[in-house]
Amino acid sequence: MRDFSYIRAASASQAGSAAQQSGAMFLAGGTTLLDLAKCGVSEPETVIDITHLSGMSGITVDTAGARIGALARMSEVADHGDIQAAFPAVSQSLSLAASAQLRNMATIGGNLLQRTRCSYFRDPGAFPACNKRNPGSGCAAIGGITRNHAVLGASEACIASYPGDLAVALVAFDAVVELDGRKVAVDDFFLAPSNTPDRETVLQRGEMITAITIPASAAAVNSTYIKVRDRQSYEFAAASAAVGLELEADGKTVRDIRVALGGVATKPWRARSVEQALIGKALDADTVEKASRLAMEGAVSHGGNHYKIELAPRVVTRAILKMGGLA
Amino acid sequence: MTRSIHIALDINGQRHELDVEPRVTLLDALREHLTLTGTKKGCDQGQCGACTCHVDGRRVLSCLTLAAQVEGRQITTIEGLAGEAGDLHPMQAAFIEHDAFQCGYCTPGQIMSAVACIREGHAGSDAEIREYMSGNLCRCGAYNSIVAAVRQAAAEAA
Which ipTM was obtained for this model? Predict the structure, then answer.
C-alpha cells in the first residue's frame, strides 16, 4: 500500500473542499478503500476520514418511510427494529452480506460504493488490461474465467458484476440517494458500464453521500431478500432477489410487486418486466415462473456465468412464491 | 515522502503514544509498533478474521482499520481479556476446555469475535453461532469445538 496523507474531517464542508484536490478519497468504514489500496487498485494521495462527522449516522422511520444517515453502520441498520418491520428485505440484505466484523465497520454510504469483486479488476499486477481501472486498456475478464461476471447490463468494455446486496433491496423500493445538495434515485445513481466502466455512479469529484431515503409501501412491508451463493455464509451472491408484494383484498391478485436482482448484473437491477407481467394477475406457481423468466431478457452468457441465466429466475420465483404464501 | 503522524491509542485501558505513517493499520500498529502480537495477521485483506479486535466494544477487523482512525476510541485486544491476576476470560477457558483449536493461529480472533457475538445477542443456537462467527476462518477445521465453546460461554453468561 502506497503511503498517503491523512485528514480527519471536522465538518462535511471541510471534507468536501478537501476532496476537490486530485487523488483525494473519502474514508468511512475502510473495508473497500483499504482492501483495494493493498491490492494496488486504489492509490489515494490523501485520505479524508469522515467517520468522526456528527449527525450523519441517524436512522429514522415514520409513516412516510425511512431515512438512514450515510455513516450508519450496516449492523445498526440490519438490527434496527423499525427497519426490520417496515423494510424486511433491506434488513435481510444487510444481515446476509459480509461478516459480523465487516458489518460493524462498513457504512451505508460506503456500502453502495463498494467496487466489483471481478478478480481481474482486483489484480493489476497479473492483469494490466482493465477498462474499469485503466480506461482503454481492454478487458481481461472477457474470454477468461467468468463464473462471477454479469449476464445483464454488460458491454464490450466490461462485464464486471455489481457485488452489493443492500442496493438491490433499495432499487426495488425506489430509494433515493441524498448527496450534498441534490437527490438521485438509486436506479439512476448507478451507471451501466457502456464505454466508460470507470464511471460507476453519477457522483462528481468531492461529492459525498449524506443519507438514503426509502419511501414506505405495503410491498416493502411484505418483502424478502433471498441470496443464493457458493457458501452458506460470508459470500457474495451467485444470484439474489429482493421482492416485495402487495395483494388485493382477495388475497391472490397482485396489486403491487417489486423485483430486483443482485449478483447477475453490472448494477443493481430492477426487473420491471417481471413486475408488469404480474400486476393484476392471480398468483400461481406457473404464472410466477413464466413471469420470472422475463428477468433474463437481454441476458448474455460469457460461458462460466451461463448458470446465472437459469439460476436467477428460480431465485425470483422462490422469493415471489414465498411472499405470496405459496411456498 | 514519508510523513509520520503522532497519535495516541487507548488499548486495553492504557494510553500508548506513537509515530506512524498514515497508512499504518491498527493491526500493524499493535504488532509492529507496540509489540502486542496476540492479534494475528492472517490474510491482511479482511477475509479471515484473525485480526479481530474490539473498538468501542464492537468487533472489527484491525487489518482494514487505520490506526489514525481509531484515535480517541477504546481498543480491546486479546491481551486485554484476562483479569488483572491473569485469570482467564470465560471464553478463553471455554476454548481450552473444548479444545477449540489446533494450530492456534486463528484463536485470538475467534475469541474476540466470540465474546462480541454473545454480547450482540447472536449466540442463541448453534446455527446462529455458525452464522455470526462466519467471519473467522479456521484452516485446521476446529469449527465444531469452537461452536461448542461459544455455546458453553453463552450459557454461562446468560
Answer: 0.97
